[in-house]
Specification:
alpha/beta; four-stranded antiparallel β-sheet; about 260 residues; Rossmann fold
């Protein structure tokens, strides 16, 4: 479903502020993989997601999604392949629009615009059923403005919107980092449920090592713009946080430098 081949990216090249963010990155994802991504500060985790999404052009290398080489495609043309949820719960929804209007926008992404009525009774019924999956009572608040929802409710709605068109790849960029622990756990549970029920291929960047071990079928660790550890199956299930930190030190020859990860 995803192939990243020899991708390199340097920001501010040729200046004193030059920073090599991705260094010959190679990654292959099979259809249905749910990969958690961890790493120290500046390891290249979010840059990798931005390169997949087309936020920045690659310096060299290629990115292939479901057999389609998207390396040269701009961000808006890659959108039909991707769903994405950001760290800030306010980013993925339109606060001044109703819940059902946000869902309608997501459901019609990429479709031809017409002059027909806004939301049909059939669509409204479908949205109600979808919202029941979240188990947050939002199915009874279809006409409520999204700006009135809590951060956790908005992030759960964003997840639903990102997965409603069953994207080839779902990108979760520290999407629970801004939430309190109880709400973060609920949003993670919803994420896992949506990924499994829709058979999605997903990548989740997280600073929480326990979550990285608990969720998904595969875990990758990044350092200095490339992958230094890739584990799946039973080996992943038996991992501990201590073992992960030790593995980082053994592989990179450095101390693990991510305060949020260590504190969590």
């Amino acid at each position: 479903m995803l192939d990243i081949i020899g991708v390199e990216k340097t920001f501010n090249p040729g200046t004193v502020n030059a920073k090599k963010a991705l260094n010959g990155l190679n990654l292959h994802l099979n259809e249905g993989d749910f990969v958690t991504v961890i790493g120290g500060n500046g390891a290249g985790k979010s840059t990798m997601l931005n390169m997949i999404a087309g936020v920045y052009p690659v310096d060299c290398g290629s990115i292939v999604i479901d057999g389609v080489n998207v390396t040269k495609l701009p961000e808006h043309k890659r959108a039909k392949y991707l769903g994405r949820v950001f760290q800030d719960p306010m980013t993925g929804t339109a606060a001044d629009m109703q819940i059902e209007e946000n869902l309608a926008l997501a459901a019609r992404r990429g479709a031809r615009r017409t002059l027909r009525a806004g939301i049909t009774p059939k669509e409204r019924k479908e949205y109600k059923e979808l919202l029941k999956i979240l188990d947050l009572g939002l199915e009874e608040r279809l006409t409520a403005k999204v700006g009135l929802l809590s951060g956790g409710q908005r992030q759960a709605l964003t997840l639903l919107m990102a997965s409603i068109k069953k994207p080839k790849l779902l990108l979760l960029d520290e999407h629970t980092a801004a939430l309190d622990p109880k709400t973060a756990a609920k949003v993670l549970e919803i994420s896992d449920k949506l990924i499994k029920e829709n058979g999605l291929t997903a990548m989740m960047v997280t600073h929480n090592m326990k979550d990285a071990i608990a969720y998904g079928n595969r875990l990758i660790m990044m350092n200095e713009g490339h992958i230094i550890f890739d584990v799946s199956g039973e080996e992943k299930k038996s991992l501990t946080v201590e073992a992960l930190i030790q593995k980082f030190s053994q592989t990179s020859g450095q101390e693990f430098a991510n305060d949020r990860a260590l504190l969590s």
